Amino acid sequence: MIYVVYFMICICYTCEGKRTKGSSMASDIYARIRQVAFELVGEGAWPTVAEVRARLGSGSNTTINNVLKEWRQDFLSRMATSSRRPDWPASLAESFEQVWQKACDEAELQLDAVRQEIEAEAAALRDERAQLLLQQEQAAAELQSLRHELELRAARQLELNGELEQARRQLETAQRERQELQAALARQQQELAQARREAETQQAEAAEKHAQQLREARDESERKEALAYERLEGLRVRLYQQVEDERKDMKQQLHKLETSLQQARQDAAKVEGLWRERVLERERENGGLQARLDILQQQAEEARAQISHMRQSEEAARLEWRQATEVLARLQERQALLPGQWLERACAALLTEEMPREPEAARAWLRARLEA
């Protein structure tokens, strides 16, 4: 039935459109409204106030509604006249016109109800799209925040790397100083050993010299003593005193040499103790630098772990953003396909089944066919 109605509407539009194009176009709003109504019928759509106003781009809804009412009455009367067969009885033709008028009225009511449902569904889809856009903006803001935090962590990582490099340079400097101190200590030890050897050599030479002097003095003493026996007793006593004086001088010189050797040994021990203290102090400083280096390395590892975690969070945010974009695209595609699908379902149902006459039953029947 709907197919026959649509076919008759197209025939009427074709005839009327040819007559309209043959005459000059009116400049007033009424002629423009009627022209747009004919164009919509020619495209297979029933003209409404919203669609006509959208085509015109301006105009009052009241004016468009009044003109459309007149146009519908005129158009339906022409369609009924054009569809009347001359061989039909008058009563049959009148009954057909009444049935036709009622069918058109019911179809318009059902079409309005379907349009309202479609508009409600479209509004719900728009709300859902707005929510998805809001979620997308929130995800983008969170992603920006994560990127900023990642940049801060990267800057902190660079700073930690700089501190680590500085600590490494300080450690290398300390190690070089330690090596220099160790080398200096080795030189001091060598010098101390050399001084000890020289002191021992000098001591040995002094002892040998002293022994030689003692031997010489003894020989001289014996010689003088022999001479003393030959000389007077007084000369013997004087010579004996001279020998004793020379012995005291030798003892004093030997004591001085031993004192010098002891002082040299004490000085060497002091130098060795001083260098040992400096080496221990450097070792303690190196231990502190090593502990600081370990702390900096631990902080660097923690920063690397935090950067890895931030990268994982950024990947998760990107995945959520892509999923939200895909859902939005599917909703937009569904929104674009819904009107055409519902119209096809309605036409198929009207061609294969008979629609109830009661408005509520007709609305429920049409809703069931559209949701099938």
From TrEMBL:
InterPro entries: KfrA_DNA-bd_N (IPR021104). Residues 31-143 form the KfrA N-terminal DNA-binding domain. It comes from the Bacteria. Residues 192-222 are annotated as: Disordered. Residues 194-222 have a biased composition (Basic and acidic residues). Pfam families: KfrA_N (PF11740). This is KrfA protein. It comes from Chromobacterium paludis.
